[in-house]
Amino acid sequence: MNNVFGAGNFTAYTSYAGATPASIFNPSNRFVFLEGGASTDINWLAYLSGNASTILNWVNSGGALLLMSAGWDPGTYTLGPGNLRQDNYLNASPSGTLTRAGTAAFTFEPTLTTQSGNYLAHDFVTGTGLTVHGR
Asked: Which residues of 19-33 are buried (b: 16+ CB within 10 A; e: fewer)?
């Protein structure tokens, strides 16, 4: 995060308990990254569900939201126009290829455009009216 935003230009929370929506989803913040993987996905989903209207109002006002999930608990959860689908690895992807923007961002390994590992991606977002970026 220091490399992207600069030291001291971001706030990282280690728990959703201290992440008050009013301090995060306000006009002074243009980008929010919410991570909820492995054993934290239940708290992540509870935070999204409990604060959906605040989050969606912030996004509709121009905020950029990045959701990162590597959940262990299968299910489909609705957030605004989208569905967050955790399918217990049924559609898991063991590898992925960086987009042009990704290749430009990861300059420390310019020749490695394809990454592989244990379930590089296993959750996904679907929904009417959503736009896929970066392809």
From this structure: beeeebbeeeeeebe
